[in-house]
Amino acid sequence: MALLEVRDISVRFGGIVALNQLTFDIDEGQILGLIGPNGAGKTTMFNVVSRIYDPTEGTVSYDGNNLLDLPAHKIASVGVYRTFQNLALWPGLTVLENVMVGDHTRTKANFVTAMLRLGTAKEEKALRWRAWEALEELDLREHAFKPATGLPFGTLKRIELARALVGGPRLLMLDEPASGLTHAEVDDLAVTIRTLRDRYKLSVLLVEHHMQMVMAISEKIVVLNFGQKIAEGTPDEVKNDPDVVEAYLGSEAVA
Fold it and tell me: Is the pTM above the cut of 0.85?
């Protein structure tokens, strides 16, 4: 059963067509890789699902409901979480505090009660414990009380992943999580994503340029080029598609 259904999504910015009639599904528990050259429309699609952009045409259904009815600040409350290509951590907070932010939708505190610390102690304790468990899951406990600045890039990427995990996602959207990582870190990340998917029964939408990782962990791949879908299928089907080879992978990548 499809958790996310994207139907005929088009996005235009003036005379520029960023996406043109894009359709695909993500099934429950599936890892779907969304790939294509720079400028193909991957980030635009990500931003439609995460409600940063409104599409010009089309529909997006999540768990049977119209996702486009929700504003951006509400999508976490239905289980849609994302990471960012460029790190979006608060350097003035500790690693633990950064991860705690990811679980804000399950708290009842508002600005006033949080500022005055009125009746928030029990809730904050539970939130801190959930964040600690997420850090433990991603082998980050030793960094919990350090500032989220000056740490190795691969560690910062895992902190972002922990922050997304702590909120209890059903759909986890990963925007180039392997960007800037070493080969060893990419291999570890691939194992981590599949482990988290299996353990927490996640569906994953993965935008990534690292083809070896995409091919290794995705059950289905959608390929974009100039805003249009040019291929969809299993990794083996996609990597042998002549249109994909010509537009993106190149002959050496699939040899």
Answer: yes
* Tokens found for residue 185: 């870190």
Average pLDDT over residues 131-141: 94
* Pair 193, 206: CB distance under 8 Å: yes
Lookup result for tokens 């414990």: 129
Q: In what order do the strands lie in the sheet with 220-225?
A: 80-82, 171-175, 203-207, 31-35, 220-225, 228-233
Q: Is 73 exposed, middle or buried (0-12, 13-18, 19+ CB in 10 A)?
A: exposed
Residue type for position 63 = D
- In the block, residue with structure tokens 């951006």: 72
The residue type of 86 is N
**Residue ranges of the alpha helices (H) in 117-219?**
121-137, 153-166, 183-200, 211-217
Rounded to whole angstroms, the Cα distance separating 141 from 130 reads 12
φ/ψ region of 86 (left if φ > 0, alpha if ψ in -120 to 50, else beta) reads beta
- Coil, strand or helix: which one is 44? helix
Over range 81-101, report the average pLDDT. 88
What DSSP letter does each residue of 51-78 carry, written as one string?
A: TSS--SEEEEEETTEEGGGS-GGGGGGG
Question: What pLDDT was estimated at residue 126?
Answer: 86
Q: Which amino acid is at 60?
A: V
Alpha carbon 173 to its chain centroid, in Å, reads 2
Q: What pLDDT, on a 0 to 100 scale, did the predictor assign at position 252?
A: 47
